[in-house]
């Protein structure tokens, strides 16, 4: 085991994937010699050559169109969108093409070899256009898988699973944690199953659910709650599509309470889907209404970011409200 | 000193703007309307066997289009699109390729698919979205596709196949990478051809796809079918300047413009384009100038936006008639036999239509298969619930109720 930050862990997963298939390609804006704005692809062009690790022109729809074609050919297409905020020009290629390739052709063709990596979320003083969490837009599209890691170990294992998965996957990387999150990561290959949530900590009074960078926030809130005598069960969803309702249902059936937290705006955020499902499946076990602690229905701000974000204090208040209901 | 702008500067002291039409790209034409090789044109290399296969494909597609257009009017299928007027452009370009080169088409290229060997029955199964349709009855009529024939399944959104063709062609090229040096071998064995109309050339995907193909040297042949209209919008409301060909030049792509009603010109141009793509690994653009003789689709009525006179003028310049005239002059075709074959094809089409119409619709399980490689838990649950519901009310769902396992 080696100490790695999240960028090293991602780089390691990409390295293994490039070695595995002679036609695997990494491409996106500035990912070549420069290694990407966050340096996630550092050193890979030197190792695998300019034909397999290369900068693209600045065209997100072009990157995803190219990626769909390359994946349809049968080569692993490891596309990077520099910021999730800039994924929207590629929306049509992802939602109408990647997601529907297999279905519309009766499995004559598919783009299962496609993996899209993109840094998402706030916390880097990035303002409106470098802080968005667009997962809910894609979660409404059958045919895609959406995965979000919370630390370096998860990042490597989940990214390897995404690349090996026979479906197009979007891998949202919490950019706030790229360098901030450091942990033990095996240097060898391993995968973490997509579609399985992880019970990070067991508890009895309330279930706290989040994913990606927001995991750190609910863990901080849980510390405060435990000090106040409330036992929290903490769950990392890890993948949004498909999402592991079963693990959550089991937990809420036990605790009777649920707080869901995500950075994206609350209205039609993925928390809404979770709340609706749990309300139906756990109706007679619920002791209080399901609480959602999320971003406001505004674009992500710059100066008042601290006020905007669903921080540990806000989550703590929601826990209290739920327990005292 | 190297120039970071990636252009060789040609300094001028005269303040002069270049006109948008300055390129004035010529149009390759080999065959006259009467079926004679024009003076100055190089004799075509098209051999008899290929020529007759091209002709029989054009003849078949014309008859299929005619019959299925009528079937749509009778309410037997929901939609149809003909390739009337563009048979030469599509068939001759497909004929200039290898059977296993990839075709990424827009929607009007059924002749290319038939040239590859897509059978009458396969066309009918797709048009009637029955259980034998390779696409499992999920898409509207004319959204054909076949992995075996290297013909990507049609997507309705316009132009999306253009950057995909670049990616696919890049994969074809990467197959020939030297594992030791990481360098590419100079010659490759396959290319991708990407068809699209001049309307699709307005989409962002066109610009993204061409630019990426040029920069990353993908062996793709972009085949622009400039047929004068994008549904009801004439080409002069679609683009300015020297056509789609000028855009190819603008992206640094080797480009040619051909008379799309001239089978020999299209064949020669595409053959040469393929040779360039396989030997240099680079993209090529062909702009075919033809006229869409029919309606855009069965939802369209061209009488609202173009005159009878205009249509008549182009009807006189029929690509199939022009090629037939050449074949007759070569003594490769017999007029009487041709008529007899047409009658036979008409009968076969009618018979195949009647058979396909009666084949049952896809089974209920095809509703949920292929969304993912295997259905995800939420979808499995929804499927089980749906099955229970249908079992409860079988009369309301007659197509699937009796076949649920």
From TrEMBL, chain A:
Keyword NADP: no
EC category name: oxidoreductase
Residues forming coiled coils: none
GO molecular function list: branched-chain 2-oxo acid dehydrogenase activity
Cofactor: thiamine diphosphate
EC number: 1.2.4.4
Gene Ontology BP term (one): branched-chain amino acid catabolic process
Keyword hit for Glycoprotein: no
Keywords, in A-Z order: Oxidoreductase, Thiamine pyrophosphate
Transketolase-like pyrimidine-binding domain location: 4-180
Role according to the record: The branched-chain alpha-keto dehydrogenase complex catalyzes the overall conversion of alpha-keto acids to acyl-CoA and CO(2). It contains multiple copies of three enzymatic components: branched-chain alpha-keto acid decarboxylase (E1), lipoamide acyltransferase (E2) and lipoamide dehydrogenase (E3).
Record's protein name: 2-oxoisovalerate dehydrogenase subunit beta
From TrEMBL, chain B:
The organism's place on the tree of life at top rank: Bacteria
Protein's name according to its UniProt entry: 2-oxoisovalerate dehydrogenase subunit alpha
Entry's family note: Belongs to the BCKDHA family.
Catalytic activity: N(6)-[(R)-lipoyl]-L-lysyl-[protein] + 3-methyl-2-oxobutanoate + H(+) = N(6)-[(R)-S(8)-2-methylpropanoyldihydrolipoyl]-L-lysyl-[protein] + CO2
SUPFAM superfamilies registered for this protein in UniProt: Thiamin diphosphate-binding fold (THDP-binding) (SSF52518)
Names of the cofactor(s): thiamine diphosphate
Enzyme class, broadest EC rank: oxidoreductase
Protein function: The branched-chain alpha-keto dehydrogenase complex catalyzes the overall conversion of alpha-keto acids to acyl-CoA and CO(2). It contains multiple copies of three enzymatic components: branched-chain alpha-keto acid decarboxylase (E1), lipoamide acyltransferase (E2) and lipoamide dehydrogenase (E3).
Gene3D superfamilies in the cross-refs: 3.40.50.970
EC number, UniProt record: 1.2.4.4
GO molecular function, one term: branched-chain 2-oxo acid dehydrogenase activity
Keyword DNA-binding: no
Keyword Zinc: no
Dehydrogenase E1 component domain boundaries: 56-363
Coiled coil: none
Key words, A-Z: Oxidoreductase, Thiamine pyrophosphate
Classification via Pfam families: E1_dh
GO terms, biological process: branched-chain amino acid catabolic process
């Amino acid at each position: 085991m080696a100490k790695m930050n999240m960028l090293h862990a991602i780089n390691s997963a990409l390295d293994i994937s490039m070695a595995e298939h002679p036609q695997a390609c990494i491409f996106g804006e500035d990912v070549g010699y420069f290694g990407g704005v966050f340096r996630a692809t550092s050193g890979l062009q030197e190792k695998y050559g300019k034909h397999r690790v290369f900068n693209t022109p600045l065209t997100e729809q072009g990157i995803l169109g190219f990626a769909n074609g390359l994946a349809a050919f049968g080569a692993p297409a490891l596309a990077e969108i520099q910021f999730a905020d800039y994924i929207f020009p590629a929306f049509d290629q992802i939602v109408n093409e990647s997601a529907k390739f297999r279905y519309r052709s009766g499995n004559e063709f598919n783009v299962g070899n496609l993996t899209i990596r993109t840094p998402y979320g706030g916390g880097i003083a990035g303002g409106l256009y470098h802080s968005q969490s667009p997962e809910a837009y894609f979660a409404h599209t059958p045919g895609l898988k959406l995965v979000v890691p919370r630390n370096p170990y998860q990042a490597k294992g989940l990214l390897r699973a995404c690349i090996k998965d026979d479906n197009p996957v979007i891998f949202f990387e919490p950019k706030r944690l790229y360098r901030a999150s450091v942990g033990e990561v095996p240097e060898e290959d391993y995968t973490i199953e997509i579609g399985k949530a992880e019970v990070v900590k067991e508890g009895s009074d309330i279930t706290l659910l989040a994913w990606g960078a927001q995991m750190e926030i609910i863990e901080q809130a849980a510390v405060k709650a435990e000090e106040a005598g409330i036992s929290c069960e903490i769950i990392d969803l890890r993948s949004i599509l498909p999402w592991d309702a079963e693990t959550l249902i089991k937990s809420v059936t036990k605790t009777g309470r649920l707080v869901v937290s995500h950075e994206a705006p609350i209205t039609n955020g993925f928390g809404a889907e979770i709340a609706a499902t749990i309300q139906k499946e756990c109706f007679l076990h619920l002791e209080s209404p399901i609480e959602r602690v999320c971003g406001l229905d505004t674009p992500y701000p710059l100066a008042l970011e601290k006020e905007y974000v669903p921080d540990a204090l806000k989550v703590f208040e929601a826990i209290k409200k739920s327990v005292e209901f | 000193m190297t120039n970071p702008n990636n252009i060789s500067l040609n300094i001028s002291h005269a303040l002069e703007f270049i006109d948008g039409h300055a390129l004035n790209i010529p149009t390759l034409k080999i065959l006259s309307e009467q079926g004679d090789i024009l003076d100055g044109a190089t004799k075509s290399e098209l051999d008899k066997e290929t020529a007759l296969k091209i002709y029989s494909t054009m003849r078949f597609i014309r008859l299929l289009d005619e019959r299925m257009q009528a079937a749509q009017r009778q309410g037997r299928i929901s939609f149809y699109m003909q390739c009337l007027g563009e048979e030469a452009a599509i068939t001759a370009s497909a004929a200039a390729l290898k059977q296993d080169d990839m075709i990424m088409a827009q929607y009007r290229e059924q002749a290319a698919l038939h040239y590859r060997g897509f059978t009458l029955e396969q066309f009918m199964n797709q048009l009637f979205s029955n259980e034998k349709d390779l696409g499992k009855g999920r898409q509207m009529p004319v959204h054909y596709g076949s992995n075996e024939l290297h013909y990507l399944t049609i997507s309705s959104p316009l132009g999306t196949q253009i950057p995909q063709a670049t990616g696919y062609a890049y994969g074809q090229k990467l197959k020939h990478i030297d594992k030791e040096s990481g360098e590419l071998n100079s010659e490759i064995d396959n290319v991708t051809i990407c068809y699209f109309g001049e309307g699709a050339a307005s989409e962002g995907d066109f610009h993204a796809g061409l630019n990426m193909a040029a920069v990353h040297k993908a062996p793709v042949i972009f085949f622009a079918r400039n047929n004068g209209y994008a549904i009801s919008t004439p080409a002069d409301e679609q683009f300015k300047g020297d056509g789609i060909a000028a855009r190819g030049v603008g992206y640094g792509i080797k480009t040619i413009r051909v008379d799309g009603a001239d089978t020999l010109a299209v064949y020669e141009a595409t053959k040469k384009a393929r040779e360039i793509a396989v030997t240099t690994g680079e993209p090529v653009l062909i702009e075919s100038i033809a006229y869409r003789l029919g309606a855009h689709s069965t939802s369209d009525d061209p009488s609202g936006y173009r005159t009878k006179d205009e249509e008549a003028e182009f009807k006189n310049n029929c690509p199939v008639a022009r090629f037939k005239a050449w074949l007759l002059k070569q003594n490769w075709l017999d007029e009487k036999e041709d008529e007899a074959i047409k009658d036979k094809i008409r009968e076969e089409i009618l018979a195949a239509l009647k058979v396909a119409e009666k084949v049952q619709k896809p089974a209920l399980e095809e509703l949920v298969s292929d969304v993912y490689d295997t259905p995800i838990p939420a979808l499995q649950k929804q499927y089980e619930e749906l099955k229970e519901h249908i079992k409860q009310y079988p009369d309301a769902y007659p197509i699937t109720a009796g076949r649920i396992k």
